[in-house]
Amino acid sequence: DDGLDSTSSLVASLLRSNKALDEFQLYVPMSDAELINKHAQTLVDGLNENRTLSKLGLNFLRPALHDLSEDKVAYAFSAPLFNVLQRNVSLKHVSLECRFKDVKLPEEILFYLKLNRAGRGRLLETPLDARAVWAETVIRGKDDTSTVYYFLTMNPSLLHSHRDYCGMWNAKTMLPSNQR
Fold first, then answer.
1. How far apart are the C-alpha atoms of 86 and 92, rounded to whole Å?
2. Tens of pLDDT along the chain (180 residues)?
3. How buried is 178 (Cβ within 10 angstroms: 0-12 exposed, 13-18 middle, 19+ buried)?
4. Is 28 helix (H, G, I), strand (E, B) or coil?
5. Which of 51, 55, 151, 157 has its CA 20 to 30 A from that of 20?
């Protein structure tokens, strides 16, 4: 177990200090759910400060008779990944596998990954009044109402027309002539 402690700490350190790596795939020979729970937080902690990694793949290999399952891997990584994704805007794809079977990620994690793919990181660096950038990002996410809703709640001024927003229109000029 001491070797796994140093390995997971080393991987977390690598992810934390990385300034160029875009994609990272790791094969982990873990056969015990207790070890996964112990090391999940350490492995994910490295993503808190990482701003370049866009794809992360973790593959857990196990002997067939041990107690490690897809559900246990998902459970161990759900909270740490969710916490990281609230701040990390570069990570766009995460795949977890347990013995070469996909691990289903919780909807909350998939939502933040979708927001990152739609351009959440770019928006957080853009002033709220840079309407074109915000509008472009909302349009990019138009096929998913939850993404559009998220971006509009982050910048509700997008719902105002430019003239209305600047105070140049009044309600009467916006009504059809037969209703004024």
1. 12
2. 556 567 778 888 888 888 888 999 988 776 555 667 777 888 888 888 888 999 999 887 765 545 566 777 888 888 889 999 998 999 999 998 877 788 889 999 999 999 999 999 888 888 877 888 888 888 888 889 999 999 888 888 887 765 544 444 444 444 455 555
3. exposed
4. strand
5. 151
Q: What are the CB-based long-range contacts (under 8 Å, 24+) for 114-123?
A: 114/141, 114/144, 114/147, 115/141, 115/147, 115/150, 116/85, 116/88, 116/89, 116/90, 116/91, 116/92, 117/92, 117/93, 118/144, 118/147, 118/151, 120/89, 121/89, 121/90, 123/151, 123/154, 123/155
Count other Cβ atoms within 10 Å, centred on residue 94. 22
